[in-house]
Amino acid sequence: MRRRTLLTLPLAAVPAATARLPLKLSVRVEPLFPGLTLDAQMRKVAEAGYQAFEFGDWRAQDSKQITALSKQLPLECACIVGNRGVNPIGMGLCNPAEREGFLAEIRASTEAAKRFETTRIVVLSGFKVPALSRQTQHDSIVEGLKRAHDIVAPHGVTMIVEVINTLAPIEPLNPKGNNHADYYLDRTPEAFQIVREVGSPFVKILYDIYHTQIMEGNVIETIRKNIAAIAHFHVGDVPGRHEPGTGEIHHPNVFRAIRDTGFKGFVAMEYVPSKDAMQTLKDVRRMVERL
């Protein structure tokens, strides 16, 4: 197709993913498209005009198949989950006794990241250990991440450590499960302090706007002051973790603040849609286009 012809086509005729956006957008696929296979979920993400996808359990997927499809669509794999879950038994960070289990899982996830062609793995602190002091657990997290740096750094993989709220009575992404009230890393000041103590460019924070709004508020100022330590964002409104515009967070202002920092990573939709999922993704995309 000649360039002149392409420029004269109506906007709807141009592939949505090729249009310029002020932020790089990703989708955590499971909550938006439950019940679909990962390849079908990826096709939905591409149809919505987003640049990347992310998912939970890499162990259940065929990396060759997924990587081939991601190139075809095209989509980037924004991240995969490293040490399995919110309370990764035997591979958490809080308990020094679980250190070798944690490092073994990071080794496996780093190799998986290479196969899925992503450079980020989500790391979860795990639940608090009642028998250990808060300081002991803090120190264990720092030491575990320092040790893990030696695993990920040679491969250019960044561990993004997630802060998760401990106040919401129900976890919307898993309403029948534990609401992670015992999760250790639930405040950003300690999270950013951990990043400073580890002192590695391959250890940063996954800033989840839903979780941090519940715990602290002050989202925009926190982002502005700490953007150098943030490598990834998750998006969901409060209450209910539905799409932007359904709750108390003014997402256009938050998105604008992220853009104005010059952030180059992904801003990922991780919410339970209150209406048609594709319509919510189109609405958010339009919100970002208007910044």
Plain-language structure description:
The protein is of the alpha/beta class. Helices cover about 40% and strands about 15% of the residues. The chain has eleven helices and eight strands. The protein has helices spanning about 5-10, 30, 40-45, 65-70, 100-115, 135-150, 190-200, 210-215, 220-225, 250-260, 275-290; strands spanning about 25-30, 50-55, 75-80, 120-125, 160, 205-210, 230-235, 265-270. It has an eight-stranded parallel beta barrel with strand order 1-2-3-4-5-6-7-8, surrounded by six helices. Strand 3, helix 5 (about 100-115) and strand 4 form a beta-alpha-beta unit.
Strand and helix map with partners:
Blueprint: H1 3-8, E1 24-28, H2 29-32, H3 38-47, E2 52-54, H4 63-72, E3 76-81, H5 99-116, E4 120-123, H6 134-152, E5 158-162, H7 188-198, E6 203-208, H8 209-215, H9 219-226, E7 230-235, H10 251-260, E8 266-269, H11 277-289
Parallel strand pairs: 1-2, 1-8, 2-3, 3-4, 4-5, 5-6, 6-7, 7-8
Rg on CA atoms, Å: 19 Å
Strand order of the largest sheet: 1-2-3-4-5-6-7-8
CATH homologous superfamily (4th level) name: Divalent-metal-dependent TIM barrel enzymes
| Total count of helical runs of at least 4 residues | 11
Uncertain residue segments: 1-18
The portion of residues assigned to helices is 25-40%
CATH third-tier fold name = TIM Barrel
State the distance separating the first and last CA atoms: 30 Å
* CATH architecture tag: Alpha-Beta Barrel
- Say what oligomer this is: single chain
How many domains make up the coordinates? Answer: 1
Q: Round the mean pLDDT to the nearest integer and report it.
A: 93
What are the secondary-structure elements, in order, as H or E? Answer: HEHHEHEHEHEHEHHEHEH
How many individual β-strands? 8
CATH class value: Alpha Beta
